[in-house]
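TICKET: design request
STATUS: open
ATTACHED STRUCTURE:
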């Protein structure tokens, strides 16, 4: 009987073309060789399935699975059903797994005993000419947490950055039963899955050593900023927030949960503002989207609290002090760069500003606001 590999790598494939060969090659060149690569074709129409079978003939570690087009979540779930490794991870069909990735994550897993381990990543975005431009981000610091972690859980999320799945490795015995929500589309599936992971995991570790390069192509799910995609993400947001709250409760003692969750709330506000900024929605659609962002009461999340909403106040630009009095001076400056991450207003609050309103700024909205009147 064939011995099961130590690591399973799941790669959904959909119309990847020549990029598939590069992605597969980056996996086959790993310094750690005891793995299987599951190529899950999601109903490709460009010959990617044939290429996958051709690659499988050249390397016995590759297995090909096929399904009618059902989306990346369904493809990953099919891979999870068939993976045999003690650990599993993911790789996109147009990305690059750095040569030491599996070895780095496995060493971290064995040295810490963590249920999930994460590594650093390099983010590239293709511009209009097709040139890949790196988007730098803080690498964070090495951190290991065990339940109950309290503030340590928040620190882990902040140090390890956005919770993608392609720069992480998961223990199959502990987490292999989890599945992606196939109703989640347009870029939130990784976050929702990892929220479920943290509900189950008892320990986690992160190293800033870069293990993965992720490319955001023009029109890809992760880079997609068209209005329809943004609205899909915003519609799913309450379910993601609820899952995150459940995870926070699992990691934080009751006395520390409010502080941790308050910080997570602020990050959700940031996410909403990024979506509204990038989605190019008309003003009325932006207003409707913002008002609809009231997650389940059980999550204890009220976006209005972060926007300075009280009985006598209305939402306005977010400043270090979320009150009309504290907001007005910054709002009235009208500086173009107030919406820039490098502006001190951003660094102070660590948030992009929620929308201005007519009551707090007058009818002429400052340039740094996104033009949403509540």
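STATUS: resolved
RESOLUTION: sequence designed for all positions
ATTACHED SEQUENCE:
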């Amino acid at each position: 009987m064939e011995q099961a590999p130590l690591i399973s790598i799941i790669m959904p494939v959909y119309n990847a073309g020549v990029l598939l060969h590069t992605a597969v090659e980056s996996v086959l060149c790993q310094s750690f060789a005891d793995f299987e690569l599951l190529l899950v074709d999601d109903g490709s129409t460009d010959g990617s399935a044939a290429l996958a079978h051709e690659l499988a003939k050249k390397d016995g570690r590759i297995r090909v699975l096929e399904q009618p087009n059902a989306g990346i979540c369904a493809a990953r779930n099919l891979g999870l059903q068939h993976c045999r490794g003690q650990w599993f991870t993911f790789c996109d069909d147009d990305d690059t797994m750095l040569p030491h990735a599996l070895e780095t994550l496995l060493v971290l897993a064995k040295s810490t005993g963590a249920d999930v381990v994460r590594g650093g990543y390099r983010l590239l975005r293709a511009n209009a000419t097709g040139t890949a431009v790196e988007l730098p981000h803080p690498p964070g610091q090495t951190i290991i947490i065990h339940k109950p972690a309290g503030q340590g859980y928040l620190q882990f999320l902040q140090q390890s950055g956005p919770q993608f799945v392609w720069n992480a490795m998961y223990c199959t015995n502990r987490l292999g039963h989890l599945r992606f929500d196939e109703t989640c589309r347009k870029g939130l599936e990784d976050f929702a899955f990892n929220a479920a992971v943290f509900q189950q995991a008892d320990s986690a570790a992160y190293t800033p050593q870069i293990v993965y390069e992720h490319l955001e192509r023009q029109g890809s799910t992760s880079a997609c900023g068209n209005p329809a995609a943004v609205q899909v993400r915003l519609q799913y947001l309450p379910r993601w927030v609820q899952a995150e709250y459940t995870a926070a409760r699992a990691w934080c003692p009751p006395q520390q949960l409010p502080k941790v969750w308050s910080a997570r709330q602020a990050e959700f506000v940031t996410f909403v503002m990024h979506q509204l900024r990038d989605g190019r929605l008309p003003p009325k659609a932006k207003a409707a989207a913002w008002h609809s962002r009231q997650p389940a009461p059980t999550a204890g999340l009220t976006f209005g609290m972060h926007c300075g909403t009280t009985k006598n106040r209305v939402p306005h630009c977010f400043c270090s002090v979320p009150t009309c009095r504290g907001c007005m001076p910054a709002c009235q400056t009208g500086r173009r760069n107030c919406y820039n991450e490098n502006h001190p207003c951003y660094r102070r609050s660590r948030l992009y500003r929620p929308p201005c309103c007519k009551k707090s700024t007058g009818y002429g909205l400052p340039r740094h606001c996104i033009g949403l009147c509540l």
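CLOSING REMARK: The longest helix spans residues 227-251. The chain has 14 helices and ten strands.
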